[in-house]
Amino acid sequence: MSTSHNAQYKEVEKSTLYEYTKRCIDVVFSVTLFILFSPILCILAIVVKLDSKGPVLADTPERVGKSGKLFKMHKLRSMVENAHELLRESPQFQKLFETYKKESYKLRNDPRITGVGGFIRKHSLDEVPQLINVIKGEMSLVGPRAYYPDELVDQQRKYPYTKQAVKIVLSIRPGITGFWQVSGRSEVNFDKRIQMDANYVKRRSILYDLWIIAKTPWAMISGKGAL
After folding, report:
1. Does residue 6 lie within any of the structural domains?
2. DSSP secondary structure, the chain, as one string
3. In the chain, which residues have pLDDT < 70?
4. Residue 191: beta bridge partners?
5. Buried b (16+ CB within 10 A) or exposed e, 51-84
6. Number of folded domains in the chain?
7. Is residue 116 in some structural domain?
8. Predicted pLDDT at 27
9. Other CB atoms within 10 A of residue 98 CB
10. Could you tell me how far CA 197 lies from the centroid of its own chain?
11. Cys-Cys link to 104, which of 132, 177, 185, 189 (CB 3.0-4.6 A)?
């Protein structure tokens, strides 16, 4: 994704006060949550390491952030080592990869998920290290999903009418949580999901963000926000 042609990103402007307040909330909440979750993260890191071969953090490619800038999104590893490359390059996963693309880059029964991985994904515990991305300013607590570059290209080819929505979505930082995750509609296809994200960008406000943050713990506990 190119970062030099900013005209391709359709920004929905908000007040300076909103942007400043949102950033303050992001930093204060993220630092607080990271401190609170640190003991759990340490335990999960040990369990992930003991459960299967590979690093503690997921070894996935960069994601597309604000204005198309690529960044490394931190997640606890919930799949086998080199899972991303295996799906795309290994002949044994060729049919699975085709299903993956047809299902808007989601798999209901993914054989790459480890024993511990299934649990931490269901309750979104693998997402906790993304608090570091928020503190660094690469992500926000609330925002659109962070997509893989090839996912955006393929899905826009499949749903060409989503290009305008993608431009709007890429005009702001992606989030750890968002409207579609807490709405119980996390299984929708790309065209509906990207439109929900674009609608969030247009509608976003501090109260709306706080409402989404307030609903996120239940989505994590129930597993309804998991993909």
Report:
1. no
2. --SS-GGGS------HHHHHHHHHHHHHHHHHHHHHHHHHHHHHHHHHHHHSSS-SB--PPPEE-GGG-EE----B--B-TTHHHHHHH-GGGHHHHHHHHHTTS--SS-TTB-HHHHHHHHTTGGGTTHHHHHHHTS-EEE------HHHHHHHHHHSGGGHHHHHHHTTS--EEE-HHHHTT-TT--HHHHHHHHHHHHHH--HHHHHHHHHHHHHHHHHSTT--
3. 1-8, 184-186, 223-227
4. none
5. eeebeebbebeebbbbbbeebebbbbbbbeeebe
6. 1
7. yes
8. 97
9. 10
10. 12
11. 189
Determine how β-strand 175-177 pairs with β-strand 140-142: parallel
Residue 159 forms part of a structural domain? yes
pLDDT at residue 22, as a whole number: 96
Residue range of the domain that includes 48: 12-222
Sign of CA dihedral 31, 33, 39, 45: negative
CB of 144 closer than 8 Å to CB of 169: yes
**Domain annotation covers residue 5:** no
Contacts of 92 (CB under 8 A, 6+ apart): none
Rounded CA-CA distance 26/134 in Å is 7
The residues that bridge with 63 in the sheet, in sequence order, are 71
Burial of 116: CB neighbours in 10 Å, binned 0-12, 13-18, 19+: buried
How far is residue 56's CA from residue 40's CA, in Å, rounded to a whole number? 14
